[in-house]
């Protein structure tokens, strides 16, 4: 791997020697020898193209995985919307969910269960998400990642933590982003 820091010091030392020599009117021939401690692979570009490091940005109950230095404003807005949806679902705040969800919000569950309960909102003790991908195209945004949930089952029994993959479709409307579809993989 090419070490830019060492090259920076080499260039700075050459420049300083040339400045000093120029100031005193002297000329010298400078020769350098380079030593490589790691072999250079000439068959690929892996030595010249660095892999991006992953970073995690925490916004309330959501952690966003990104390879950028910071989130874009749209990504941050969507992460905050995800966090607001989590809070509303955990609190069973239907007024807030009506502001967050589209009027024709759809929910595709993994096991295609038939529900007999009129209130389809699950009862969560805790709910957290790790966003792995945000893809924005026009007025639509696809958000996917992993969800960690601890549900309260029938009879006040607490279920163990469930880890599941999810994907959301957000639609931009006049007053912000609305959740249109939720599905679990």
Overview of this protein structure:
A seven-stranded mixed sheet has the order 1-2-4-5-6-7-3. Helix content is 25%, strand content 35%. The protein is α/β, with parallel strands linked by helices. It has helices at 4-24, 73-91, 94-100, and strands at residues 55-59, 62-66, 101-108, 124-137, 140-151, 162-173, 176-184. It folds into two domains: 1-51, no CATH class; 55-184, Nuclear Transport Factor 2, Chain: A (Roll).
Question: Which key phrases capture this entry?
Answer:
185 residues, alpha/beta, Nuclear Transport Factor 2, Chain: A, seven-stranded mixed β-sheet, 7 strands, 25% helix, globular
Indicate the low-confidence ranges by residue numbers.
Answer: 30-36
Helix content: 25-40%
* Structural classification: alpha/beta
The whole-number mean of residue pLDDT values reads 76
Give, in order, the helices and strands: HEEHHEEEEE
| Largest sheet entry | 7 strands, mixed
Q: Which descriptor suits the 3D outline?
A: globular
How many domains is the backbone divided into?
2
Strand arrangement within the widest β-sheet reads 1-2-4-5-6-7-3
User: What radius of gyration results from the CA coordinates?
Assistant: 27 Å
What proportion of the residues form beta strands (DSSP E)?
35-45%
Measured between the Cα atoms of the first and last residue, the distance is 39 Å
Highest CATH level, the class of the largest domain: Alpha Beta
CATH architecture of the largest domain: Roll
